[in-house]
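Standup notes
- DV: blocked on the single-chain target, sequence here:
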Amino acid sequence: MHRLFYVEELVRQIAFDAYERPLGSASLLALACSCKILEGPVMDVLWQRQKLLDIILRTLPADCWTLTDGVYRLIKIPTTKEWKRFKTYTGRVAELHVGDPPGCQEVSSATISFLVAQSTVDPLWPGLTSLRLYEPRWEMLVSALAFLSRKIKAFTLVLPQDTSILLHPILSIASARCHEVQELVLDTVVEGPHSIDMVGGLISACKDTLRTLEIRSPFETEYLPIIANLPRLKILRLEKAGSFSCDIPSDSFPVLEEFTFSGFQERRIEIFLKLLGTAGLKVAKMYSHVTIDFEKSIAALSRFSASLEDLEITAITSLDLVRVPAFRLPFTNLRNVRLRCLHREVALLGSCTLRLSDKAVVDLGAAMPNLTHLTLGNPICPGLQCTTFLALVGLSKTCRELETLEIKIDFRTMVAPSLSLSETKEVETPVETQGHGCKLRKLVVGASILPAPSEESGWIVAAGLGKIFPSLTEVEGRGNFGRGKWGSVDRNLRMFRQVLRTVGIQGTHSRFDS
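- DV (later): unblocked, structure below
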């Protein structure tokens, strides 16, 4: 018995590795059918990880089904023995995607009706814990009982546009059966009282277990009283709020750790932040279609200065970072900061601008010394103001834990290869912080201004980067300045490291050294 258990565990490990390879599902299925001892452990792995409905249905005997014009159809009813064998597989399925591209084929209405009929007495997916329905047809929604297991922990529903009539069957069944949902994602839920009642009913049905809620449709104020007091809600993602006019306590969302607002007006975000309780908010992500007043946004988050770890602010038109007294706030635990302007069609929205002074960059690093990832602007946005060499030097001194930096740089400000750090007096950093302690490994630059292309200019850029970031292993160009444009920088960075080792300055090993 002990030996058999050891063999099964070994087979499971092999199956896990094989599943990740090309044609892994087909290979595992053939392996399972080749030997009775292998069937159990291999199918355990395969169906706990397989997600697509049509691929699961293909495990029925080949003479029972056909795949024509991208549609799976049953052409023969499986025998009792064949169906029993098939159910030993479906009982192990943990996650199911229906109509979810890429790679998922359509299943015919007749096939779905057959599955529903077979599920009325004995559930077809008893172990299902995650279900994603992507733009399902009417037959699929009214047949939801065949898929909605009482054990479901994650439920995603993506509806086609203008299909409010489809909401009622699926949400009514889900409200009655799914009381243990921990993650709920609703997309393209139409506006109106009827939709609010149905969505609110589902949220209320799983209020004691819900931990993640994402609504990708226009958010209605009427949802707030429902979600404000969810006792375990930790992650909230909302889009397009109208207003926060309803009367709810100011200490709502007692355990919220992460929120994402997309398409909200800045005033709405500010009001929402005042509603949060004293919970330790760790992640804040804000996306706006208008200009964001950065100082007001940071001030609104100041209550969570001791707990916030990840901050992302994105505006489509402009984001002003020239004056940054708000950086004086003690965001001591921040690890990731992304401040960006999106580049859209100029004819529609005008040019995008992110005004960024060198002093603002250095102040940011000084106020948040534990940063590991920093994004300043969309690297390919033409309206983004370039930073200079002085800003990079300042970051290398004040932000020692930084590992990834995305920024737009004017490389014409690079000084000669001799690089004297004493030439950076304009940057207000303590003398004792000067040195080469920054851990930066990846630098992403896009649409940056390069000196006139020559071997000498490539050497200057490589020397500058190599000296202030001795751990740098990757320089990535984006937009009009792709990898090809940075070939000389890569080569010269390798040469520069050889020079450093020659004179006794040890740089870390990088892929450029190979």
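- Follow-up: Residues 459 and 492 are 5 Å apart (CA to CA).
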